[in-house]
């Protein structure tokens, strides 16, 4: 689709937004949202006709790109057939979505509880774990994001937790492995793995194993920095949880449905959790949908005991029809394998080549279409390009980098001192290279702030 400029409509859209829309995570008078006119595939455009290559996949959810015709058609067909229905009934789209998801989840995660998004999935997974074990506490990592609802935001490790942290939610944070900024002074990945596992076990010991219901981890942390865990870490967490009767929860809201080059990131590690949360890529974000994949043992807890939770729109037919179509498209078009190949052959080599030329790039990490560049002032000291949770003038170097990328037609995902490279799973090789070229130019702006 060729963007057609229409600045008058754009001005009206912007004016209505500014007058009435209250935006997430924002000081309302300090933001200037772009008015979006349309999107297709890996691109979107504004009312001035300027087109952007989307290296954010929305909020890391358009795993098959924007406006895939088969998914759009499935939503239209479902709307004409049965646009909505209460969750207590068996509905074809809901049943089929659950079946297709359960076929792809690891191990015996065969029961699917549908939610409206990832945060609600985490809320319900936590509730299930507490009821299953009869224990109150849940452990989560400091470098994490699990959602903005009450329990999920307390489980979150990043600064978005701070204003809402009740300090009474039964949450205990711990350090997960991250060799580049190791809290354990490790020299290599094996050492980092061993020390991180010992730290987790010590935390459980001092909290009291009989009080801990669950450990929740993002399989590969997303917003917190895309830190792939070292070999053996998730298996080690699984073993610790089994030893103490603790429920192991993996959050695959961002990493799932092809983003890491596997259906689920857990598939890279051969680990099956007791509960797995998902959302985003399950239907490419076309209609809000999330859920919890539940193991046989936890499902059995609620076989004759009512589960005390539910949502009015659980398994909404439009969302489930979109999920069915998305999963089928991913199979038909080989999108999971394509994500793996793009990561291995284009994004990984291309990003590492950029790192060799740009002193602002401290580390490149990722897999599939799930990458992060750690931007630093100094490679030797690893000082971040901007301070932790920087804002205003302190964040100026990252703001300048972001503006440079957008000026070159690339919409970047920026969090703190990192830029994440998270395009659609079906991005083409040519599009990926176009993005890398724009990123190359934008990183020259970041380089100006190095020492």
Describe, in plain words, how this protein is organized in 3D:
By secondary structure, the protein is α/β, with parallel strands linked by helices. The protein has 13 helices and 16 strands. The strands form 3 sheets. A 7-stranded mixed beta sheet has the order 4-10-9-8-7-5-6, with helices on both faces. Helix 4 (92-104) crosses helix 10 (317-332) and helix 7 (189-207) packs parallel to helix 8. The radius of gyration is 22 Å and the shape is globular.
Summary, kept brief:
This protein is of the alpha/beta class. Helix content is 38%, strand content 17%. It has a 7-stranded mixed beta sheet, sandwiched between helices.
Q: Main sheet: which strands, in order across?
A: 4-10-9-8-7-5-6
Beta-strand percentage? 15-25%
Content-based structural category:
alpha/beta
| Major beta-sheet overview | 7 strands, mixed
Element pattern in H and E: HEEEHHHEHEHEHEHEEEHHHEEEHEEEH
Helical residue percent? 25-40%
- Give the C-alpha Rg: 22 Å
Shape summary? globular
Low-confidence stretches: none
End-to-end span in angstroms? 44 Å
Can you tag this structure with a few keywords?
single chain, 451 residues, 5-stranded antiparallel β-sheet, 38% helix
Layout of helices and strands, plus pairs?
Blueprint: H1 7-20, E1 36-40, E2 43-46, E3 51-54, H2 57-60, H3 69-81, H4 92-104, E4 111-115, H5 118-133, E5 137-141, H6 150-155, E6 171-174, H7 189-207, E7 212-218, H8 233-244, E8 247-251, E9 275-278, E10 290-294, H9 296-301, H10 317-332, H11 335-357, E11 361-367, E12 370-378, E13 383-384, H12 396-407, E14 410-411, E15 413-415, E16 418-421, H13 429-447
Parallel strand pairs: 3-14, 5-6, 5-7, 7-8, 8-9
Antiparallel strand pairs: 1-2, 2-3, 4-10, 9-10, 11-12, 12-13, 12-16, 15-16
């Amino acid at each position: 689709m060729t963007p057609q400029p229409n600045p008058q409509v754009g001005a009206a859209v912007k004016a209505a937004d500014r007058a009435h829309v209250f935006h997430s995570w924002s000081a309302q008078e300090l933001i200037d949202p772009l008015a979006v006119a349309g999107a297709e595939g890996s691109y979107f455009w504004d009312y001035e006709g300027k087109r952007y290559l989307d290296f954010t996949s929305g909020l890391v959810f358009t795993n098959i790109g924007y406006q895939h015709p088969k998914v759009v058609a499935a939503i239209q067909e479902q709307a004409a057939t049965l646009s909505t229905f209460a969750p207590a009934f068996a509905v074809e789209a809901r049943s089929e979505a659950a079946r297709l998801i359960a076929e792809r989840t690891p191990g015996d995660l065969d029961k699917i509880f549908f939610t409206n998004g990832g945060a609600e999935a985490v809320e319900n997974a936590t509730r299930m774990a507490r009821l299953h074990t009869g224990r109150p506490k849940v452990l989560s990592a400091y470098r994490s994001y699990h959602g903005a609802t009450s329990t999920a935001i307390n489980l979150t490790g990043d600064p978005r937790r701070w204003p809402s942290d009740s300090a009474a939610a039964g949450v205990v944070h711990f350090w997960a492995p991250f060799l580049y900024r190791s809290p354990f002074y490790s020299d290599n990945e094996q050492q980092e793995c061993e020390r991180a596992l010992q730290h987790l076990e010590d935390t459980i010991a001092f909290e009291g194993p009989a009080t801990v219901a669950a450990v929740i981890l993002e399989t590969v942390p997303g917003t917190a920095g895309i830190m792939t865990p070292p070999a053996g870490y998730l298996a080690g967490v699984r073993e610790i949880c089994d030893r103490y009767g603790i429920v192991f929860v993996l959050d695959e809201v961002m990493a799932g449905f092809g983003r890491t080059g596997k259906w689920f990131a857990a598939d890279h590690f051969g680990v099956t959790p007791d509960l797995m949360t998902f959302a985003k890529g399950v239907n490419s974000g076309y209609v809000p949908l999330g859920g919890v994949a539940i193991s046989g043992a936890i499902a059995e807890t609620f076989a004759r005991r009512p589960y005390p939770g539910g949502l009015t729109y659980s398994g909404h037919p439009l969302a489930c029809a979109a999920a069915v179509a998305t999963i089928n498209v991913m199979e038909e078009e080989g999108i999971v394998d394509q994500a793996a190949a793009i990561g291995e052959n284009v994004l990984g080599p291309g990003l590492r080549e950029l790192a060799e030329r740009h002193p602002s790039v401290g580390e490149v990490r990722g897999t599939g279409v799930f990458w992060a560049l750690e931007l630093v002032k100094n490679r030797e000291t690893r000082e971040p390009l901007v301070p932790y949770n920087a804002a205003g003038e302190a964040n100026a170097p990252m703001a300048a980098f972001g503006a440079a990328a957008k000026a070159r037609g690339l919409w970047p995902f920026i969090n703190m001192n990192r830029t994440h490279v998270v395009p659609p799973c079906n991005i083409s090789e040519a599009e990926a290279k176009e993005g890398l070229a724009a990123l190359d130019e934008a990183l020259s702006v970041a380089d100006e702030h190095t020492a």
